[in-house]
Amino acid sequence: MATNEEIDPAQVFEANLISLNKTMDEFTARGDSAVQQFYSGTTVFVTGGSGFLGKQLVEKLFRATKVAKIFVLLRPKKGKQMLERLQDMLKDPVFDILKNTQPDFVDKLVPIAGDVADMKLGISDKDWDTITEETEIIMHMAATTRFDEPLKVAALINVRGAREALLLGKACKKLKSYVHVSTAYAHACDFRINGDVLEDFYKSPMDPEALIKLAETTDEERLNSISDNLIKNWPNTYSFAKAVAEETVKTLGADMPLCVVRPAIVVPAKREPVPGWVDISNVYGASGTMAGSGLGLMHALFTDNETRVGLIPVDYVNNTTITAAYETTKRVAAGDNSIKVYTITGSTRNPVRWGTLHEYISTENRKYVTPSAVFYGFAWQTTNPIIFWIYSWLLHLIPAYVIDAVCLVIGKERRFVKIYKKMYKLQVVLSYFTCFQWRFIDDNTAQLFDSLSEADKAIFEFDVKKIDWKEYM
Length: 473
Fold this sequence. Notes:
Elements: H1 9-19, H2 22-30, H3 34-39, E1 43-47, H4 52-64, E2 69-74, H5 82-90, H6 96-101, E3 109-113, H7 125-134, E4 137-140, H8 151-171, E5 177-181, E6 196-197, H9 208-217, H10 220-231, H11 237-252, E7 258-263, E8 265-267, H12 286-294, E9 300-302, E10 311-313, H13 314-333, E11 340-344, H14 354-362, H15 364-367, E12 380-382, H16 385-410, H17 416-435, E13 439-440, H18 443-451, H19 454-459, H20 469-472
Parallel strand pairs: 1-2, 1-4, 2-3, 4-5, 5-7, 6-13, 7-11, 8-10, 9-12
Family: Belongs to the fatty acyl-CoA reductase family.
GO molecular function, one term: alcohol-forming very long-chain fatty acyl-CoA reductase activity
Main location: membrane
C-alpha cells in the first residue's frame, strides 16, 4: 500500500485534469464533426514537424482526425537515415497515447529529407514531385526561434524558407489550404508598446527579396555589423525576420487559399495530449523557465509585475491552426479570397499579470509540489538589469557553483552553472516581451472558435477565456 510520502500531488492533480478530457474524447471517437470530415482522407505536409509546435500538431492530427498521410520535413543528420530521424522524433512522450490507441499511425507518417534554410526546402526532385501531386494541406511551422540568431541565419530560414514553402504550395495541384505560422510579436515593435497590434498585415520593415539577397551575398560577420541598423524598432532578428516574412506571404500568397496564425509565447500544453507536456528541446525557452519555477529551480525573474502575460499553451496554438486551415478552405469556396490573420494569445480576453503568476508560483505550487522538485517555488522579480544580475548570482549561480563543486568531488557531471548561465541569457533576451506589453486584437480567432460546432469546440479547444491560469500554473 502506498504511503503518503510516495504519493506525488502533482501527478494526482494531473490525473484529475486528464479526466476532464472525457468529453473531448467522446466527440473525437464519433469522427463526424465538420473539421474531422474536412481532414478525413487528406494528405498534409508539415514543416517544423520535429519541433515543439510541430510534434504536438502531428500527434493531434492523427489522434483527432482520419488524415490519410502526413509528410513531415526532417533535416538530415550526419550518419542517420531518414527513418532513424523519424524514430528519434517518435520517442517523444507526446506520442505515447497515440502509440497505444493507434499504433499504425507511423505507417501514415512519411519523412521527407530537406532543410528549410535551403532552396526548394532542400527537397529532392523526386520528393518534390510526390508532394506536389498528393498534398492538399500545408502547415508551414518551421522557423528559427532564437532571438539572438545572426541575421543571416534568421533571414535564410524565416524569410527565404517562407518563400520556398509558398512556392511549394503554389506547385501543389490539389492544394485546399495553406497555413503560415508567424508570431504575435512580428509587429510588436517599440513604437507600438502599450498600443494595439491588429490582425492585419503591416508595412514590412524591409523588402523581403532585398533581405534575402543580402543574406545570400553578405558574409555573416559583415551582416552582423549592420544588423542593429537594419532591425531598428524590432527587438531582435527573430521578430524582424518574421515581420518581413509576412510581406512575402501577403504578396506571393495572394492567389492561394491561405491564412496566417500568430501565436504569442508558446508554453506547455494545457491538456493535450497530457497536461503540462513540453518538448525537451524547448527547455531553454519560456517553457523551461516555467518548468524550472515549478521545480523550485528558478527564483530570479526578469519581468514587470504589472505587465500582462503573453503566453499561450501549445495545444491551443495547434487547435487554432487545424481549424484555421478548415475555415480557410470553407471561406475561399464561398468566394472570400482574402488572407485572414488569426492571433492566439491569452493576454487580451483572459489577461493575467506577471505579478499574479509569481504569486501562484510562490503559493499554489506548494500545494502540488512534486517529489522531483528541488525546492519550494518562490520568485524575486525585477525590471532592472543590474538587480536581475545580482539576483541571478545570489539565487542561481553561487548555489550552482557549490553544487557543481560537489559533483566534481563525487565524480558526477557538472552542469548546473552551464544551465543557469543559459537561463540567465534567455531571460535577458525575453525581457522585451516580459517587461513591455501590447494589446493583441484577436477578433478573428474568437470568431473562428464561435463559428465551430459544439463537437469541434470540444475536440479543438482554444477558447482562451476558459484558461484558469492558477490551475494551469
